[in-house]
Design a protein that fits this description.
alpha/beta, six-stranded mixed β-sheet, two-stranded antiparallel sheet, 8 helices, 8 strands, globular
């Protein structure tokens, strides 16, 4: 979208907001649509080629607004091919969830590539059961990470999956950042063993140009088929639920808007360009002074360079004085 069109579309959006605020008295307080109504109005998969902006913009009123007060987050399938056990580099939110739930948490050591391996998991399970620990909730849960927050390391799903299946563990895969890379077939090398996972999550807001906090969650099987109608909730609870669901609707519109305007091919090309910049950056490591770099996955690093500095501040001057050119 060029600057001239961007200005015109921005004005259209402001006009739409003003029109909405001016006509809000005529709109329903509680929508008359059923949960899941969006499923019939949205395409089954992301488009291969970009769509016209007019069609995307018109869908705000046609698709989103009829259920803006109580819409459910859709199951967006974009056709991409007692003792919780966590790897040391798992996201801090997993630890916080365990603390809030008042359960014991055990952090498992990683290998030299900061990856959790199957034999480590197997040994930890055996030790915990010998200590008489009870599985967490219905299933013991393992949180595996594809692209850790600190260094973008990848756990070995091909080793962890069979262990989880044998031991009855729920395998949750957290690919919050790196999940966007899986739009590119050549970057799916870390997905070996994904068929063993019970749930998968990634954040489009981290790398997919979705400028709104949102999370994509995929379950291997449906956890529940029960739908709650917010009209039956007490008023105070309804306000909270409506606030959360309005946020969900905004996330849906953001994801759909990005995918429909940019299409799968453009999203993949965007990721490839950033990965290429990362590889180019790693190639200049020999010019730095007293430091070493590490790209997770070797030449298939997912757009993150880790620098391990040592000695004096010469490395900092090397980087920040502009001595590196790509």
């Amino acid at each position: 979208m060029q600057a001239e069109e961007y200005n015109r579309r921005g004005k259209e959006l402001v006009d739409y907001i003003s029109k909405y605020l001016g006509s809000i008295r005529e709109r329903r307080v509680i929508p008359d649509v059923k949960p899941g109504y969006m499923k019939e109005l949205l395409p089954d998969s992301a488009p291969v080629e970009p769509e016209d902006w007019e069609n995307i913009f018109n869908d705000i009123e046609r698709v989103i607004m009829p259920g803006v007060s109580s819409s459910y987050l859709l199951n967006l399938r974009w056709r991409l091919s007692g003792s919780p056990l966590l790897v040391q580099s798992a996201h801090s939110s997993v630890e916080k969830a365990g603390l809030i739930s008042l359960v014991k948490i055990r952090f498992l050591p990683s290998d030299e590539n900061l990856s959790l391996r199957g034999d480590t998991l197997k040994q930890a399970i055996q030790e915990d059961r010998r200590r008489g620990l009870v599985p967490f909730l219905v299933c013991p849960q393992l949180c595996s990470t594809l692209g850790t927050t600190g260094v973008c390391a990848f756990d070995k799903l091909s080793e962890l999956g069979p262990v989880c299946e044998e031991e009855g563990l729920w395998l949750h895969v957290d690919a919050a950042y790196a999940g966007s890379a899986y739009f590119c077939p050549e970057l799916r090398w870390s997905l070996q063993g994904i068929e063993f996972s019970d749930s998968f999550v990634f954040n489009p807001s981290k790398w997919m140009m979705v400028h709104f906090d949102c999370t994509y969650i995929e379950y291997q099987r449906e956890l529940t088929n029960h739908h709650l109608n917010p009209c039956f909730f007490p008023t105070k609870v309804m306000i909270l639920i409506f606030h959360i669901r309005n946020k969900f609707v905004t996330s849906i519109s953001a994801i759909c808007g990005v995918f429909r305007e940019l299409c799968r091919r453009s999203c993949a090309d965007y990721v490839r360009a950033e990965v290429e910049l990362c590889i180019m950056g790693g190639a200049v490591q020999h010019r730095a002074v007293q430091h070493s770099t590490w790209l997770p996955g070797g030449d298939s690093g997912i757009a993150q360079i880790c620098v391990n500095g040592s000695g004096n501040n010469s490395m900092h001057f090397f980087f920040f004085n502009g001595e590196i050119t790509l």
